[in-house]
Amino acid sequence: MFTLQQYLGFLLFLTILTIGFWLMIFLIHFVFYWIFGATRELLRERKANKELGQA
Fold first, then answer.
1. 21 inside domain
2. What would the pLDDT profile of 28-52 be if each residue is shown by its tens digit?
3. Domain range for residue 11?
């Protein structure tokens, strides 16, 4: 049979593991969003510079 300390330790482990998992998912999505936004802004800037150069 498990003791109360073992049960609380297991719950603490699961809590930390779950928080770490969701933090990792959030950070991965944030980085992809940042890269996508930076690329989109760069392409818009190049397009604007190209239009100014041709006019």
1. yes
2. 999 999 999 999 999 999 999 998 8
3. 7-37
pTM for this prediction? 0.61
Phi, psi of 38 (to 5 degrees): -65, -40
Residue 55 located in a structural domain = no
**How far is it, in rounded angstroms, from Cα 12 to Cα 9?**
5
Give 1-55 as a DSSP string.
---HHHHHHHHHHHHHHHHHHHHHHHHHHHHHHHHHHHHHHHHHHHHHHHHHHH-
Rounded CA separation 55/35 (Å): 30
